[in-house]
Design a protein that fits this description.
Elements: H1 2-5, H2 8-24, H3 30-35, H4 43-63, H5 66-81, H6 87-111, E1 131-134, E2 137-140, H7 157-170, H8 172-175, H9 207-216, H10 241-254
Antiparallel strand pairs: 1-2
Helix pairs in contact: 2-4, 7-10, 9-10
Length: about 260
């Protein structure tokens, strides 16, 4: 065991395994820094962002030195080209059988039909709570209206400009410049970020509903909304209540839509 750990390839494999365990099982502290919660990193982020980054960093570190790189790749070369009837040859033959079988098993598990009922009811727009607290301010979601929108529905120009700035600083990387859910990181999420230009999204909702969703993010969803696995972060510790109202103002104005009135 000590011999394996003293070898570059053994160290590489061990570090990959440790990184996977840290991300997968939600080590308290590390996971909360990455995801904002103590939950494990979502699988799509684990295999598309975090593990590839760990792999890249380890390979860059090992290949920075020619001697280290040669030591790292030598066992792999021996495994591929060794001709003598040694343990490496037997291992190579076993891998030639095991790897295709494993790939076939994984492919089967991915495409196998699953007709079981969902464990709980799901709702794309679950009912919000009666109130939400941002900072020291408690918002009554049943009657709240956007303080920066006039009675005739016209937004305050200054608040609208500030809302655009808040969106550009915090939201554009996921929801995109066009607000169509096509930001830089959009393809990394399942489901993708909401497309605000779709008339089936914010046009059907009251502004107080958007306030709740922005303030509490994915972790604030009730049980019936968890099935959508929202990657929306919690913003109530980053944005003030005023900033949330202003960015909501911008969402509707930029998409040329109007919110549902309170009581509808």
């Amino acid at each position: 065991m000590r011999r394996v750990l003293n070898h570059k390839l053994g160290q590489f494999i061990l570090l990959l395994m440790l990184a996977f365990l840290l991300f997968q099982f939600g080590i308290p502290g590390l996971s909360s820094i990455i995801t904002g919660t103590a939950a494990p990193v979502p699988a799509h982020l684990l295999w598309t962002i975090y593990m590839p980054l760990v792999l890249l960093v380890l390979l860059l570190f090992i290949s920075a030195n020619e001697q280290s790189w040669s030591e790292f790749k030598q066992p792999l070369l021996d495994l591929i080209v060794e001709q003598e009837p040694t343990g490496l040859v037997r291992l190579r033959r076993a891998l030639l059988v095991a790897v295709p079988l494993l790939a076939g098993l994984v492919a089967y598990l991915l495409i196998r039909p699953n007709v079981s009922a969902p464990p709980e009811l799901r709702s794309i727009h679950p009912a919000p709570p009666s109130s939400v607290t941002v900072g020291s301010e408690t918002i009554d979601l049943r009657s709240a209206v956007n303080p920066y929108r006039a009675a005739d529905g016209v937004p305050e120009p200054g608040a609208l400009a500030e809302g655009r700035a808040v969106y550009g600083q915090n939201c554009v990387i996921c929801h995109g410049d066009s607000l169509a859910g096509d930001g830089l990181f959009a393809t990394s999420f399942r489901p993708r970020p909401a497309d605000f230009t779709d008339p089936g999204t914010i046009a059907q909702l009251q502004e107080s509903y958007l306030f709740w969703r922005i303030a509490t993010g994915g972790p604030g969803l009730p049980a019936e909304g968890k099935g959508w696995n929202s990657a929306m972060p919690v913003w109530d510790e980053t944005l003030s209540a005023d900033e949330i109202w202003k960015v909501i103002l911008y969402l509707y104005e930029a998409t040329d839509q109007l919110p549902r009135a309170v009581g509808e």
